Amino acid sequence: MTDSRDNNGAPEAAGVDNQTQAPSGEMVPAEQVTAALEAAADFKDKLLRTLAEMENLRKRTEREVGDARLYGITSFARDILQIADNMHLAREAIGPELRESADANVKALLEGVELTERELLKVLEKNGVKKFSPLGEKFDPNFHQAMYEVADGASPPGTVAQVVQAGYKLGERVLRPALVAVAKAPAKAGLSADDDSAA
After folding, report:
1. pLDDT tens digits for 138-179?
2. 155: which residues sit within 8 A by CB, 6+ positions away?
3. How many CB atoms lie within 10 A of CB 107?
4. Are 123 and 146 in contact (CB under 8 A)?
5. Which of 13, 21, 91, 170 satisfies CB 3.0 to 4.6 Å to 175 for a cystine?
């Protein structure tokens, strides 16, 4: 049976194999090393979680700032739409016959209203507000507000047969739905008329 001896030839004490030599040369118990490694792994896990949370926060903040830039003008844009509607109504109030018979001053005034309306729509579009007129499209309650139904043989049932007032979007959101008339199937001739002709 051989003795276990240290570098100096002295016998080693029992339980020394549960120690690790530190860089400074001191012996550190294995329990402390294990605890330190577990703490380091815990700190690494917390660091990775914190970095992931910070990245998510950065992305969410960028998205919120972008939304604030785009949708921050919502209430202002809704107010401006009233002006655009009034200009459109003023332009539409004068029919083609009246335009032809109008004198030069009235024609100049009409051209000024048309130019102003076009410029207003251009400025709205530049700021993310787009006009849409869904004539002939399938009725979508997310974008359209039905005012009444029309028995229209030319349009398939459930589609927009008339646009009462154009709608507007701000980015991907509806700023104001389009006011529309929805086509319904035309009423079939009553049976009583057929019965009378047969009698």
Report:
1. 999 999 999 999 987 788 899 999 999 999 999 889 999 999
2. 136, 161, 183
3. 13
4. no
5. 170
H runs (alpha helix) in 72-155: 74-92, 96-101, 104-126
Give me 141's structure tokens.
């309650």
Look-up of token digits 């154009």: 166
Claim: this prediction has a pTM higher than 0.85: no
Reported as a single tens digit per residue, the pLDDT across 86-135 is 988 888 888 888 888 888 888 898 899 899 999 999 999 999 999 999 99
Phi/psi of residue 81, nearest 5 degrees: -60, -30
Q: Are 132 and 169 in contact (CB under 8 A)?
A: yes
